[in-house]
Amino acid sequence: MEKMKAGLEYTFADDELRERYGRAVRWCEEYNAIDGTDYAAQYQHLKLMLGAVGEGAWIAKSFRCDCGKNIFIGNYFSGNYNLTILDIREVHIGHNVMIGPNTLITTVGHPLSPQKRREYMAQAAPVTIGNDVWIGGNVTILPGVTIGNNVVVAAGAVVTHDVPDNCLVAGVPARKIKDLTDDTDE
């Protein structure tokens, strides 16, 4: 656990990590069993299973995560169908964020070495997503990435590096396509 939190290689076969994962699997199964139109019950369950959940947050079925308690969501968040957040490390999501269907946010990766993969080694880094972000469908966000404020990530993009404020990114790997104007009064 100490190695994982320090960003070093660690073994994901660790008993404490397996226990945490088992708890998250149960929480997700319970969440996904709630009536899809019972937003109040969904919200209450998210508050129990995640690290923090802001006002007006919602996630559609089916939602999956590795821990739950490492996910911190701001106000007015919308996560569409089949959202997966592999939160071995922390995932911080700002206010007014929308995530399209079939999106993966992962904080964990595995080594290129086949021997180390046989030893169940992994390395993790936190992910941060700013305010007023729209992430299109089928997007993948890799470990250690920070996405700034007022960003649009086009559908199908794979975000491998940090994204600055006020821009549109697209492609594999995602690249800046154009600047965006922040027209909020804040």
In a nutshell, what does this entry contain?
With 186 residues, this protein is an alpha/beta fold.
Describe the structure.
The protein has 4 helices and 20 strands. The strands form 4 sheets. A 7-stranded mixed beta sheet has the order 3-6-9-14-17-19-20. It has one domain (2-179): UDP N-Acetylglucosamine Acyltransferase, domain 1, CATH 2.160.10.10. The chain has helices at 2-5, 15-33, 39-49, 114-118; strands at 10-11, 52-53, 58-59, 64-65, 71-73, 78-79, 84-86, 91-93, 98-99, 104-106, 108-109, 121-124, 127-129, 134-135, 140-141, 146-147, 151-153, 158-159, 167-170, 175-179. By secondary structure, it is of the alpha/beta class.
What is the 3D form? globular
Number of strands: 20
The CATH homologous superfamily is named: Hexapeptide repeat proteins
Number of domains: 1
Largest sheet: 7 strands, mixed
Rg over CA atoms, rounded to whole Å, is: 16 Å
- Measure the end-to-end span: 40 Å
Q: Helices and strands, in N-to-C order?
A: HEHHEEEEEEEEEEHEEEEEEEEE
- CATH topology tier name: UDP N-Acetylglucosamine Acyltransferase, domain 1
The fraction of residues in strands falls at: 25-35%
Helix content: 10-25%
Which CATH architecture is right?
Answer: 3 Solenoid
Query: Mean of residue pLDDT?
Result: 95
- Helix-and-strand structural type: alpha/beta
CATH class: Mainly Beta
Biggest sheet strand order reads 3-6-9-14-17-19-20
Task: Detail the poorly predicted runs.
Answer: none
DSSP helical segment count: 4
